[in-house]
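To assess whether the prediction recovers the assembly geometry, we first specified each molecular entity separately, as shown.
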Amino acid sequence: MKGLVLALAGMVASTAASAQEAQEVRFISCPVFRDVDNGKRGGCWLSTDPESGIRYDVTNNVYPPDWNHPVLVEGVANGEEQCGGVRLDPVRTSVLPGHCPRHMLPAEGYELERPTLPVRNVRPTSEERTVPDWPLTDRTMSIFFEFDSDFITFYHSDSMVDQMVTWLRAVEPKRIVITGYAVTEPAEVTGQVIAEKPEMAQRRAQLMFEVLRDYGIDPDIIETHWAYNPVAVPDDMWADGLAETSRRRVEISAEF
Amino acid sequence: MKPSMALALLAGSAGLFVATTVNSQDSQESEWWSPGDVHELPAQVDYANDSGVLRVLFTDEEVRTTQNAFFQPIGANGRACVSCHQPSDSMSLSAETARERWDATDGRDPIFAAVDGSNCPSMPQGERASHSLLLDYGLFRIERPWPPRDANGAPVETDFEIEVVRDPWGCNIGDRGPDAGNISVYRRPRPVANMKYLLAIGFPQDPKLGRPVPVDPRTGEPTSGNLLADRRALTLDAQMDDAGAAHLEMARAMTPQQRSEITQFLMSVYAAQQRDASGTELNANGAEGGPQYLADSPAGMLGAYGKRVWSEFEPWEQMSEEQLAELSEEEREYRASVARGARIFRDETFLITDSAGINFPTFGNPFRQACTMCHNMTNMGNDVAPGQIDLGTQNAPFADPAPHLPLFRVTCTGEPHPYYGTEILTHDPGFALTTGRCLDVGKITAQSLRGLAARAPYFSNGSAATLRDVVDFYDRRYNLQYTEQEKIDLVNMMGAL
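The predicted structure of the complete assembly is given in tokenized form:
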């Protein structure tokens, strides 16, 4: 990021950010795309919290926004800036129904770091899988989702699935219990009451059943259940410390 | 063996058969492979086209056309697989070749069979106008069941309704069409060369669907999902069954022996442009054009992870003064243009917007990327992941007007489409005719970009008559604002594939 631009654009945001260092935020607003036109890929995503007026950078999401629709932003501000906003990292963005005016900002001198392969990525089929070094005891693993979604996110949940399946295939558990969850209790966010659709719990469970089956795991050893409003598991190795988002999950329990 | 073919073979050296270097009527006709013809498969065969020369390799010496079902008229209409997958056309069939066959046979070649080589079987078959889609656009009629059926023949639950807005040929009304349990769409035959790339499974998951790659219901094995425009067949066996019934009009399913023979042949065919129009070998001075490189290389590699897409031509950016001095001005300019075109293809980014399969549900809307976003497989330019995407070639408002094609109105009964809303006007619902999902309307599987110069027109609906038309379509669709030189470079590069 160019120093001059950083200084100009950061005046408001950096003050606010320093006061909110490591603070988890949750709000709904329209996303804005910044066309970082420096030959890199993707672009920046920004979104302003309507209650605080702080513009956040949400580029490090795992499910990118759509400039036609509002997003539910859930993330942690750590005081850094990116693309003209307070950087949220980790951050999740969930596309919500509703309409937003498309808005795109020019690069204005902002740059993203040269893109590198995310740590969580699915390796090519041609590469041999390394079986995770997890103990051979009953184990529950979680796959997380965006709000009201049963989509397995690219460069994130897909990597979790890949590791989990690699392990399950190697250790051959006696039974696998899948439990899909949805957070159906209403919550007020930015003046709006939101809740996941109840059927999302079953859809997540069914999806995971089909995923395991398609990966060649014997469907006869799989049980499928669904439930609502689970406790948060922010300490799960794949939850990135985010509490509320960790409630939107499927649990896969391997029993020996 | 036909006399002209025998002469041509004798004229070649060490198995090299150059079909069009002799400008006689006989040699031109010898380009056409008719069902049941006796051919000695050469190790390689060259065919001239407007961009230079296409080379086809046959790498399995044990394949005999007399003993392989690919070349035999095994159905009721006299066609063989080779009828619509001609070596001279990079194992597809160009509209120009179809016109030549019409003229040569007075419309009696089996490729003009009423079932799909005419605009509709109900039309008078002796008239050229009844075959205008094949003759002018290289299109065959594809009749899909409605509602869609799964691999076991069971109806697929749909979240959209479909009605016919325009039916120029009468194949979507009355006793045909959605009300009669089927839908006729019109598509180009996909090239069946370089098959290992089309079957390669680059990754275990499909990022566009957020699921594992599709599994073959017969074997439980993963598949590439890249064989057909609408992904209705996941394996070569399934594709052969589909084509045998629909295109060859076989009364019974292919036998395992026939499938085995065809598979053996298909896995041994490689096709790519070998020479440009000035005679430059596309693998000269360290470049890696031509089919031999494809035959020798591994398939299924993502360009972003390893060998970058179309980096085959990078050596032409690094030629020494001595090497350049040996070239004519025309050759120097051509090579520089191809190399620039390759870089534009993979490095010049643009905003991809409102394209289901890209922007939704995976990468966000908009998303800045290059042509290699979708054409991402090293050496081949098809999609490493199953390549079902909506680039606007079929759906309004992005598709070019095509009054010769049917037009359907799709009404989404569940969730609206993320970009079109509740109603979609489309020439071909594409992948949605397999999945039954409104979200998939207009999605077409990205295909190999090899041998393009030999198989115009382009896009699954033949809407781009030339490679320049392809570039111009994308220029309009995504507001690329290419310069004239950039367009020329892209066309030269694509013509060199």
